[in-house]
Design a protein that fits this description.
152 residues; 5 helices; 40% helix; 5-stranded parallel beta sheet; single chain; 5 strands
Length: 152
């Protein structure tokens, strides 16, 4: 399975991306790491080139919520049905964890899962389910009952 790891457009942090790359590789998957400060257009172009099985958007600076909304909306608009499942995680809000309405908005916009604050066990489980071919667990289109990791 190929996983594309990327930072949010306004997030210049790199250690989180290196950690994610190593973590995903330890799970047995190939990783393409786009690095930090990736604008939505570059993300969409990279998805066309790489054709990943999963896109992981990471944020450390707390602006993951607005950056993520822009990124997933543009990705869905540009790639339509060819868009891979996209998940987001890390520090998504500047004041702490997101409100349930914000998580719902991310899911409705097109994220298959939201890992607010990071939940590696749930993320690992998602990787294993995807690798096993259980695509229904992580839909390519928004679904209200999508995985809500990190909201327990």
């Amino acid at each position: 399975m190929t996983v594309l790891v990327t930072g949010a457009a306004s997030d210049s942090h790199t250690w989180n991306l290196m950690f994610l790359q190593l973590f995903v590789e330890e799970q047995g998957h190939r990783v393409v790491n786009l690095g930090p400060c990736v604008p939505p257009t570059l993300l969409a172009d990279s998805c066309r080139t790489v054709e990943p099985d999963l896109v992981v958007l990471s944020s450390v600076n707390g602006h993951g919520y607005p950056d993520g909304l822009r990124a997933v909306t543009q990705l869905r608009d540009q790639l339509r049905s060819a868009a891979p499942p996209v998940v987001i995680g890390g520090k998504l809000g500047v004041t702490g964890r997101l409100a349930a309405e914000q998580v719902h908005r991310l899911l409705t916009a097109g994220f298959a899962a939201v890992f607010d604050g990071g939940d590696l066990d749930s993320f690992r489980g998602l990787l294993h389910r995807l690798a096993a071919g259980v695509a229904a667990t992580v839909p390519a289109t928004p679904r209200v009952d999508a995985i809500r990791a990190g909201l327990r």
